Amino acid sequence: MKQLLRQQLVCYRLQLKVITTSWFDGALAVFFPLMFATATLLIYGVRDDPEAMQFAGLGAAIMGMWTCQGVIASSLLTRERWAGTLELVVAAPTSMGRVLVPTTLALSTIGLYTVVATILWERWVFGLELRIESWPLFVTSVLASALTLAQFGFFLAVTAVRYRASWSLGAALEYPGWLLCGFVIPVATLPDWLHPLSWSIPTTWAMEAVRESAGGGSPWRDLLVCLVLGSAYAVLASFLGRQLVDSARRHATLALT
Amino acid sequence: MTAVEARDLRRTFRTRTGVLRRTATEVEAVRGVSFDIQRGELFGLLGPNGAGKTTTIKMLITLLLPTSGTARVLGHDVVADVREVRRRIGYVFGGDRGLYERLSALDNLRYFSELYGVPPREQKARIGELLEMVGLTGRERERVEGFSRGMRQRLHIARGLLHDPEVLFLDEPSIGIDPVGARELRATIASLIDVGKTVLLTTHYMFEADELCDRIAVIRAGEIVAEGTPGDLKRLVTVGSVVEIETYGVGEAAVADLGAITGVQSVAVEERGQMQVLILHCARDAEVTQAALSRLDGVRVGRVGTREPTLEDAYVELVSRT
């Protein structure tokens, strides 16, 4: 157990280093969430409605996390494939799950940064002071968002072992996710047939928990659903991981050629 | 004792083309390959591009499932005992890829140490030893993105040896490395055998195979066409001797004319700057030099020499046979 924890910690630290040591990627991680927040607040600012600004401000904070974790996670293994490290990672005696967990947690760290950066940006540039009734519940909800998004990202990432083009799934999810998860509009305003899709994403519940805790309500029901859903994705990813690695060995999709 | 055993290994790749009417195409990359590698042996797998060398290695290291046939590494089946095989083998391939560019050499080795289950207490010493062995001590804190190809290749070797594997698979490790780097790499590979490792090496460089390998299998179009020591393979060829003639401005007609000389089995032209070196593969006991020179009348001729066939000559003949 001690050795497993050490392995996960070392891998987390090194993967975080991989993600954060590129100036170009770093700049994107710094500016993209701020640009998303700017666009959202400028659109909502037209109405001059404090409630709407509170809604948009909270949504924009989690939106950056969605991009950092959900979208990038799906391209993680594609990057490994391009770098030629995917085969080496698969050929290691360590299971794919143990390789991916620290990597997706490293992405969560970036996700948490985007939440803090966006909140500060909203305050300094737009003068928007988010009303947070319960900071402990708010922080808990944000941490649950990061954790469950990591689990969802883990699920997206394992599909890339088998399917070379699965990174596009993450890219395709980015903007629909803004609507489906209720970042920029309430989920209730979506057509009924889209609701099950929204509810199947843990981030929808995490967003709701963040809004509840900021508004002084109880986030526990939303947090529970969010954690159960996130765990379900993680279990499914672990199971699928093994199947997909075997399938990749059968169909020769681990390498680029 | 047998370290690696392949029996009638086959691998077929299926690709699909077309958008509306999908057509499946099957390519048999490996067609019934069988061989044994004894413990402590350095076994070479030679063959042209697309012959099936890498596919064979990938089946042995559990990255590809064979379509049929069996393979065992140190007694463990590569399909059924995947984890046991992975614990005991190392894999190194040639080229620039396969490392985390943004991490230092040390961090790359730390990361793979964790994945390959090197006990934490042993990691520091093991990494230090390997960096020393591959000549990267002092450069270990530099990011890999600034490394030359030779340095990357040496780091690959260190990575492949982290968990002290008993069997090492080296897939064209010297590709693209300068002569000095390649010589150092050959010395490193030779030292692996000295410490009791079993190595399967694929390479395009015949002198490398000749210098290093105890036994060689030549693979062509997915099938092994010859197997033996480098000496055995050289004796397999029908060529008795090779005549090399340096010329300047020789024409195609003259080359074709040389091929018609009795005793000349084939003629190859190798361009070396302004010069063309004619390589005549001759039958045993055939004396062709005078006849060849007389047919090159009017062509400026440099040095003329006769030599014994090399492993490369044997290889060219083996992979060219129809």
Summary of the model, kept short:
The complex is a heterodimer of chains A (257) and B (322). By secondary structure, chain A is mainly α.
Description of the structure:
Chain B: GO terms for molecular function: ATP binding; ATP hydrolysis activity. Chain B: It comes from Nocardioides immobilis. The complex is a heterodimer of chains A (257) and B (322). With 257 residues, chain A is mainly alpha-helical. Chain A is built from ten helices and no strands. The longest helix of chain A has 34 residues, at 50-83. The model of chain A has no long low-confidence stretch (mean pLDDT 86). Chain B contains eleven helices and 14 strands. Chains A and B meet through helix 1, helix 4 and helix 10 of A and helix 2 and helix 3 of B.
Query: Count the strands of chain A?
Result: 0
Main beta-sheet annotation of chain B: 6 strands, mixed
Count up the helices of chain B.
Answer: 11
Secondary structural class of chain A:
mainly alpha
Spatial sequence of strands, sheet with the most strands of chain B: 6-7-8-3-9-10
- Report Rg of chain B: 23 Å
Q: Which class of secondary structure composition applies to the elements of chain B?
A: alpha/beta
Number of strands of chain B: 14
- Mean pLDDT metric of chain A: 86
CATH fold type of the largest domain in chain B: Rossmann fold
CATH class of the largest domain in chain B: Alpha Beta
Residue ranges of chain A: pLDDT <50 for 5 or more in a row? none
Helix content of chain B: 25-40%
CATH architecture of the largest domain in chain B: 3-Layer(aba) Sandwich
Rg of chain A over CA atoms, rounded to whole Å, is 18 Å
Which regions of chain B are unreliable across 5 or more consecutive residues at pLDDT < 50? Answer: none
InterPro entries (chain B): AAA+_ATPase (IPR003593), ABC_transporter-like_ATP-bd (IPR003439), ABC_transporter_ATP-binding (IPR050763), P-loop_NTPase (IPR027417)
Domain ABC transporter (chain B): 4-246
Keywords (chain B): Antibiotic resistance, ATP-binding, Nucleotide-binding, Transport
GO biological process, one term (chain B): response to antibiotic
